[in-house]
């Protein structure tokens, strides 16, 4: 916050990196299950942006985290896929796995001993959960 207004620093950084040639490949929302310092003049801040950037090309690999219970497990896929030319019929026929790909809102418990077991980490006022860093590196 700057003078009661959002700083927009995350967006400014994303726009800057784009202006010097980086591609914005994905945006992930890091949702905090708990939060500190509730505001009395606006909605509580319970999320932060994570921008996934690459230089000169699209990512070569993508390791989707599959930790979401798939309610359509065992059923055949169907429908349409969006393409640059519009919509294309999905070939379908693939049996859906038990676990589906995570969406782009990642929720973690924060505060106390939930973010890190390392005591030095708690000296920083805004620490991220260790699991969040692991998930970013994995994907």
Give the spatial strand order of the biggest sheet: 2-1-7
Sketch the major β-sheet.
3 strands, mixed
- Termini separation: 31 Å
Number of helical segments? Answer: 2
What's the average pLDDT? 83
Ranges where pLDDT stays below 50 over 5 or more residues in a row are none
Helix content: 10-25%
The counted number of beta strands is 7
Shape category: globular
Q: Spell the H/E element sequence.
A: HEEEEEEEH
Rg from alpha-carbon coordinates? 19 Å
**Total domains, how many?**
2
Structural category: alpha+beta
Strand content: 25-35%
Write a structural description.
With about 140 residues, the chain is an alpha+beta fold. Helices cover about 15% and strands about 25% of the residues. It contains two helices and seven strands. The strands form three sheets. The chain has a three-stranded mixed sheet with strand order 2-1-7. It has a two-stranded antiparallel ribbon with strand order 3-6. A two-stranded antiparallel sheet has the order 4-5. The two termini are about 30 Å apart. The model has no long low-confidence stretch (mean pLDDT about 85).
